[in-house]
Amino acid sequence: MNVWLWCATALVLALIPLALLAALRPPHHGVVALAAAGAIAALALLLLSEGTRRQGFADLAIVVAVGSFAGTVAFLHFLARIE
């Protein structure tokens, strides 16, 4: 294991408190946690890509980043319609 993979592991472990926060807090707090989790997941995939020297993980990181942003905007739109 190299430094890139250790850092990716640390970022993946940082997703655990964000998942708990998203599950246990009100929806407004959960949306912020999910947006942060999407950014951290994309960074973890980029580190995994560099650590394993595989381009596919970097492509997946771009998809995760765009999907996370679009999902956050959609969730906020529907959350605003409920209230």
Structure annotation, total helices? 3
Q: What percent of the residues sit in helical stretches (DSSP H or I)?
A: over 70%
Structural Rg: 14 Å
Which class best fits the helix and strand makeup?
mainly alpha
Quick check: average pLDDT? 93
Shape: elongated
SSE pattern, N- to C-terminal: HHH
How many β-strand runs? Answer: 0
Cα distance spanning the termini: 48 Å
Strand content: under 5%
Unreliable stretches = none
Number of domains: 1
Report on the biggest sheet.
none
What key phrases describe this protein's structure?
3 helices, mainly alpha, 83 residues, elongated, 0% strand
Care to give the gist of this entry?
Helices cover 92% and strands 0% of the residues. It is an all-alpha fold. It has one domain.
Task: Characterise the protein shown here.
With 83 residues, the protein is mainly α. It has one domain (3-82). It has three helices and no strands. It has helices at 3-24, 27-52, 55-82. α1 packs antiparallel against α2 (27-52) and α2 packs antiparallel against α3 (55-82). It is elongated, with a radius of gyration of 14 Å. The termini are far apart.
Fold blueprint:
Blueprint: H1 3-24, H2 27-52, H3 55-82
